[in-house]
Amino acid sequence: MKKNITQPLLEVKNLITRFDMRAGLFGKINARVHAIENVSFNIYPGETLALVGESGCGKSTIARSILQLDKPISGSIKFEGSETLGLSLQDLKSFRRNVQMVFQDPFSSLNPRMTIGKAIADPMAVNKILPRSALRQRVYELLERVDLEPEHIDRFPHAFSGGQRQRICIARVLGLDPKLIIADEAVASLDVTIQARVINLLMDLQSELGISILFISHDVAVVERIAHRVAVMYLGEIVEIGDRKSIFKDPQHSYTKKLFGSVPVPDPRLRKKNQDLLADEIPSAMRAPDYIPIELPLIQVSDNHFVRQEVSD
Amino acid sequence: MTKIFQKTDMDTNRIVTVENLQVSFKLNDNVIVEAVKGVSFHIDQGETLALVGESGSGKSVTAMTIMRLTEYDGASIDGGVIKLRLNSGETVDVTELPLIKMNSIRGADISVVFQDPMSSLNPVFTIGFQIAEVIINHQGKTAKEAEKIALNALKLVRVPDAERRLKQYPHQLSGGMRQRVVIAMALCCRPLLLIADEPTTALDVTIQAQILGLIRALQDEINMSVLFITHDMGVVAEIADRVCVMQNGKIVETGSIFDIFEKPNHPYTKALISAVPRLGSMKDKDQPEKFPILEVDEVNLEKSAQEGSTVS
């Protein structure tokens, strides 16, 4: 199972996803949302790449596009060296088995009428990973692995708190032995003390099993803890990408600086003063149908740190 | 029951005093949930008190009881006193007022900003109309005068292009702009106390920073007191003068903002502070690192969300 470290697990290249907005009797396209514009990045085995950005910047669309829940317009998504765009449904299934998603809301991602034992066993049964007779034993192990009581296997989701449910979702994903976990705001709805524990669990699993994680988050401070590399997104583009240390030590893009500067600091002596009170908001990614996006190059700052050139205005 | 505007004693500088407040909810099968178990605090004029705690700690129930809104959800106030100073200078005990009286107090003497601005605004009316409505109801102004005040209120919260915005509907505004409108609406009668219940939780960080800055600036400009409810210690550090930490319906620690952050006493406060991710804490580290978890409530912390709603 040992792989060459330089071979990326997932290679995303020039990915573009747009959504047409239709109106009128004949469904004429009257606008287009440029959700992802020319996004490229790699994820290596055993590493965490964090995608940070604010709502509407396209981070979740990237996750959905990788799994092809949203169909990209163009680009390439290579998993272990082979192209996944345009795969047959059958082949897509085995790809999706390797790339699993943990969603934000553990209340809507667990069926309230299914015991957690069944919820965790089902994906393994569907993918025929284990004979049915061995499933229950495996679920016990998985529950133990995510620090839940195995005796609770026959309880229903309502009996668990938000943090426990998120652990159940993680156990369910682990059953499939994925190579990449996409965590889409997976800790955003949890209280801080519980959030810290769930993140620690993810990091433990990563170092034990060598799983790669695409960690999608709006919370810059959480990202600073968990990520090996960071990509900052703004309006469907990656404006800055690099290793965590360089990005946080030496942010280059004006948006990255603004984003980092807005994070509340839990130290009352560092309270922000005299800031600009005027509303300054991110523009919409919705464009006229004939809009052609301007492509600005990524500039290399250091070995492992790239920043998108900015339009001077 | 007739002593409606009965004067109660309170320091002239004090806006609200809550003493030993107890609130419980009766569930349908005769189980009683004690949500607030003897909470006491006070807020002075111009001061911001943060009520911090995790989900289910009773912070929102405490705040909503000050406005007597919890009774509509089946709560009963089992004990305690809530002294509130009105704009007229009088002091009343909110718990003794008939609910109907609260209509004239809410929105005028005490206002609230909730987490989700979209559900605080009516989607079928222009925002100008909705702000004016508050002014007409509480101050008896004509529609024309009210519109003028509404325009000033929008300018107060730094909504750009305020004249045009008055004629817009909530769906035409972004989340941050909607929250500004809700704040304008809350402040147009110049209440002495603003209750802000997680007002920035649904917003992006850059917008959150703007709204927090705005609340601070407005506070200086019109000298109001703020009861700020949040679960985010980072936000607390940005806004509060004093802090009450709540857990399971009780205040476990109260102190000035500096005492809470620099010399926390209660193990729960310590756990809460240590769990907050701090930007910059990993500056010189090459590899990601796990969060330090304080061992205090090791077993109980995760269950506490559920225990917050323990039946007793």
Could you describe the 3D structure shown?
The complex is a heterodimer of chains A (313) and B (312). Helices cover 31% and strands 26% of the residues of chain A. Chain A contains nine helices and 13 strands. An eight-stranded mixed β-sheet of chain A has the order 6-7-8-3-9-10-13-12, with helices on both faces. In chain A, strand 4 and strand 5 form a beta hairpin. In chain A, helix 5 packs parallel to helix 6. Chain A starts with 9 loop residues before the first strand and ends in a 5-residue tail after the last strand. The C terminus of chain B is likely disordered. With 312 residues, chain B is α/β, with parallel strands linked by helices. The relative contact order of chain B is 0.16. In chain B, strands 6-7-8-3-9-10 form a six-stranded mixed β-sheet, sandwiched between helices. A four-stranded antiparallel β-sheet of chain B has the order 2-1-4-5, with helices on one face. Chain B has twelve helices and ten strands. At the A-B interface, helix 5, helix 6, helix 7, helix 8 and helix 9 of A face helix 7, helix 8, helix 9, helix 10 and helix 11 of B.
Question: Mind sketching the topology for me?
Answer:
The complex is a heterodimer of chains A (313) and B (312).
Chain A: E1 10-23, E2 28-43, E3 48-52, H1 59-66, E4 74-79, E5 82-83, H2 89-98, E6 99-102, H3 116-126, H4 132-145, H5 162-174, E7 180-184, H6 192-209, E8 212-217, H7 220-226, E9 229-234, E10 237-243, H8 244-249, H9 254-262, E11 286-287, E12 298-302, E13 305-308
Parallel strand pairs in A: 3-8, 3-9, 6-7, 7-8
Antiparallel strand pairs in A: 1-2, 1-4, 2-11, 4-5, 9-10, 10-13, 12-13
Helix pairs in contact in A: 3-4, 3-5, 4-5, 5-6
Chain B: E1 14-26, E2 32-44, E3 48-52, H1 59-66, E4 75-85, E5 91-93, H2 99-105, E6 110-113, H3 117-120, H4 127-139, H5 143-156, H6 162-166, H7 175-187, E7 193-197, H8 205-222, E8 225-230, H9 233-239, E9 242-247, E10 250-256, H10 257-262, H11 267-275, H12 300-307
Helix pairs in contact in B: 4-5, 4-7, 5-7
